[in-house]
Amino acid sequence: MNTHSKPHRHVCHGQTQEASWGWTGIRRPLEADGGDVCLVQHRPPWLYLAVADIAGKGKEPARWAAQLQAALTQALDREASAAAILQAVRRAMGPRLAEADIFITLALAVVNLEDGTFSYANAGHAAAYLLRAQGPQVERLPATEVPLGVPLNGAPGQERQGRFDPGDVLWLYSDGATEIIDASGHIFGRSGLLDVLLAAREAPLPAQVQAVLRALGLHRGGQPFPDDLTLLVLRRRPQQPALEGFPFVIQARYLHVRAATQRVLRQMRLWARRYNLDLPDTFFFRWELAVSEILTNIVQHAYNHQPERIQGVLLLFPEAMVLDVWDAGAPFQGDLAVYLNQPDPFPREKGYGLYLVHQSVDQVRYHRILERNWWRLRKAFPQPISA
Amino acid sequence: MKIEVQRPSPQVAVVHPQGRVDAVSAPDLRHMLRELPEQGAVHLVVDLRDVPFMDSSGLSALISGLKAARSHGGTLALVSPTPPVRMALELSMLDRIFPIYETVEAALQHLTGGEEA
């Protein structure tokens, strides 16, 4: 029996006290000395975030991880921008890495928590994602230069600079978050990761991390993760942050729709108790109907019964309950207003789904974004949750 | 979902689904409601007291059964919908299409003019 088979969790250390920012991270090595490195340092007004992967298992990754952390920490003392820090680390470690035939990929963001500006550099690591609250839009932040341990051909790369607006979310991660294979050999991929990040982007950060882990777990079908996994997420506080978030991911099958509907309703009732919300039974009846209908609609029309993934997140705002549902199926065709109205001629046998969604909640919105369907259902509380 | 059927007379069937009627289970209910009129049970009474939830898949099955019953000269009545199911009927305005009774006996009385009940 392998007593080391259960991966242990390590939340990346450090925590910002800034009220307008939040971050969280998770590192799940297969072994205690896994090849991923996750570093967070807060030196006001700067926040430094780094995720690195040491290539080559069984090559003393723990030793190299310790050296990388030391080199990074020293570089932070002397340099102010992401590119300069990266070059300092490259100078400190490059020759030793080349000699040992090891290379390290590293994504590094340096964020000024006072004005929201940031610099970003990436030495051959998986591209970070910056999800803009407006839109939403997604900016992919690819590698700016080669991995550490690989000789630079010419000048170092240019760092990326930008600014966080309220609600913007930055994700750094290791390839364990994308290179997950299911039983049929299909890779989760960047597309699978982006599905989750988009769907969960308004949830509180721990719920966003949970959303990624659940989606990866569904893709693995319960099998252990084959690689190290590191996730690190930073968000500038949105203007109207959700109080709670409940992410879920299901296969587009009717039995999963039923189970998800019941889980979402249980979560709503739990929050109602937690926040002393005095809601009539009809509030929950209507939501139950709306959740079942919108998920069933996706199974039937977006995916045409193909067992693809549906991502959802239930959000509790002070004034309303919101359900976001995302799928990567066929776009909704036709005039939404027609579907939201009573089926004509009446009564007819089919065509009540979206009409019932519309009748059950206050607001139904549909967007086609990044080749995905995004449905947002919203229903206000009779009285907002008081602070 | 379990569905019990009673035949108080050859022309009448009381259908008693027990459980959620959604896209998982509605095909079974639809099949039964379409088959019974073919077998002579042209008057259908659907007892909904043990259905805690019904979505449009279930409503669609009821309309399908209503059409089948009508095509054989009968009708379909509903009995004792639970509050969530009554709300789905009201939101869809199908409560205006189906006669709804408090008890199976009342439905039978109405459907058969008291002869069969």
Explain how this protein is built.
The complex is a heterodimer of chains A (387) and B (117). In chain A, 31% of the residues lie in helices and 28% in strands. With 387 residues, chain A is of the alpha+beta class. The radius of gyration of chain A is 23 Å and the shape is elongated. Chain A is built from eight helices and 15 strands. Chain A has helices at 61-78, 82-100, 189-200, 205-220, 254-274, 281-302, 336-340, 353-360; strands at residues 21-28, 36-43, 46-54, 104-112, 117-123, 128-132, 137-141, 160-163, 169-173, 229-236, 244-251, 309-316, 320-327, 363-369, 372-380. Chain A folds into two domains: 21-236, 4-Layer Sandwich (Phosphatase 2c, domain 1); 244-380, Histidine kinase-like ATPase, C-terminal domain (Heat Shock Protein 90, 2-Layer Sandwich). In chain A, a hairpin with a 4-residue loop joins strand 4 and strand 5. In chain B, 40% of the residues lie in helices and 23% in strands. The model of chain B has no long low-confidence stretch (mean pLDDT 95). In chain B, a hairpin with a 2-residue loop joins strand 1 (2-9) and strand 2. Chain B has one domain (2-112): 2-Layer Sandwich (Transcription Regulator spoIIAA). Chain B is of the alpha/beta class and 117 residues long. Chain B is globular, with a radius of gyration of 13 Å. Chain B starts with a strand and ends in a 5-residue tail after the last helix. The A-B interface holds A 254-255, 257-258, 261, 281-282, 285-286, 288-289, 292-293, 296, 299-300, 342, 346-350, 352-353, 355-356, 359-360 and B 20, 22-24, 53, 55-57, 59-60, 63-64, 67, 83-84, 87-88, 91-94, 97.
